[in-house]
Q: What sequence folds into this?
């Protein structure tokens, strides 16, 4: 259904900080994937993000909003932040900042961002971050841990989640929403190498279970929800689903600073057939219920999405010991998300139903692993 909305659109993946958003806006490209330890073969999930904030306010050095003197003077941040890290054992998030005066940004599609050895485009990622324990302790405004991480990767974005007119040119031009989303590669494969704290990891397309999307706007959302995986196996047939992926995201969108009710965008691309649960597609009459629970040792998501034709029920858990409380500051310099749970090795089940003559007909019950997962509310 509605396959027109599940199409690639690199124009939506382009640099977006023009006009007013250049002075109070962010734009980021997120990538997450699984690598294997070169010695043991053990899986380890990683993430790499290029985050641009307020390019029109660029100075000779990065302007960090959480620096006490900048907070006192209400100075807005301005920088490219290269964010990279991993989940699981020894999980960490590392941040490297550049003045936007020293960053090359392609203004139109396809996007390119380059600063020293850090580079990102539609098909490649390269870079490195090195932060000592002493530096991390001395610079809390960096909002990160310590460690060393370098990467050299190629990316193949195979299936997109195009959310439709809500992130289209008209709504982008009038800045209708506070936060926009486009998943150019909700199912992606990665290839290359990672070195993390001196240990080497290999990234292969068959075992990368990759994901790539972008967000941009003038503010974040609260609550903030994200769930996605393309490592899926049918519990009905026992077969691995080679051409499938689901993606759920959103929370409480704002239109012209007016918040809507709690709503999510969602899709399940099931072996070539798209099940669309996008609330902005009014003709589908989408209804969503979701909850999040923080338990002693794990976090738990429950999402039920329904449209005129189908139902998707999603239950996900992730161990807290494997997760991060991921850090961002908003373009106005505030840091409202201080409990944003973020993981890359969630597990769970998805039940997919067709509606038929007033009844639900089970299409499949799917076991999902290597799930990217996130939840946070302002606090």
A:
């Amino acid at each position: 259904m509605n396959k027109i909305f599940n199409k690639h659109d690199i124009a939506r993946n382009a640099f977006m900080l023009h006009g007013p958003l250049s002075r109070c806006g962010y734009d980021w490209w997120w990538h997450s994937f699984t690598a294997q330890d070169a010695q043991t073969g053990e899986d380890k999930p990683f993430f790499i993000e290029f985050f641009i904030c307020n390019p029109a306010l660029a100075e000779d050095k990065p302007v960090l909003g959480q620096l006490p003197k900048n907070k006192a003077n209400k100075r807005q941040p301005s920088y490219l932040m290269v964010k990279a890290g991993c989940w699981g054992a020894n999980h960490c998030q590392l941040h490297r900042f550049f003045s936007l005066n020293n960053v090359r940004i392609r203004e139109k599609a396809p996007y390119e961002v380059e600063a020293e050895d850090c580079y990102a485009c539609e098909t490649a990622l390269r870079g490195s971050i090195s932060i000592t324990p002493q530096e991390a302790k001395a610079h809390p405004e960096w909002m990160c841990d310590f460690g060393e991480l370098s990467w050299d990767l190629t990316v193949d974005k195979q299936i997109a989640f195009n959310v439709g007119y809500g992130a289209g040119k008209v709504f982008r031009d009038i800045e209708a929403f506070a936060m926009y989303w486009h998943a150019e590669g909700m199912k992606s494969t990665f290839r290359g190498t990672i070195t993390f704290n001196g240990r080497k990891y290999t990234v292969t397309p068959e075992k990368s279970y990759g994901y790539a999307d972008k967000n941009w706007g003038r503010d974040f959302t609260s609550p903030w929800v994200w769930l996605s995986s393309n490592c899926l196996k049918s519990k009905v047939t026992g077969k691995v689903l080679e051409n499938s992926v689901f993606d759920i995201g959103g929370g409480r969108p704002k239109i012209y600073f007016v918040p809507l009710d709690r709503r999510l965008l969602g899709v399940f691309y099931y072996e070539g057939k798209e099940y669309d649960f996008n609330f902005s597609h009014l003709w589908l009459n989408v209804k969503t219920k979701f909850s999040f629970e923080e338990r002693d040792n794990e976090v738990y998501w429950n999402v039920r999405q329904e449209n005129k034709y189908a139902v998707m029920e999603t239950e996900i858990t992730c161990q807290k010991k494997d997760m991060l409380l991921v850090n961002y500051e908003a373009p106005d310099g505030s840091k409202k998300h201080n409990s944003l749970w973020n993981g890359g090795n969630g597990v769970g089940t998805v039940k997919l139903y067709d509606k038929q003559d007033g009844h639900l007909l089970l299409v499949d019950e799917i076991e999902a692993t290597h799930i990217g997962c996130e939840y946070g509310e302002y606090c």
The helical segments are 68-72, 133-138, 169-173, 205-208.
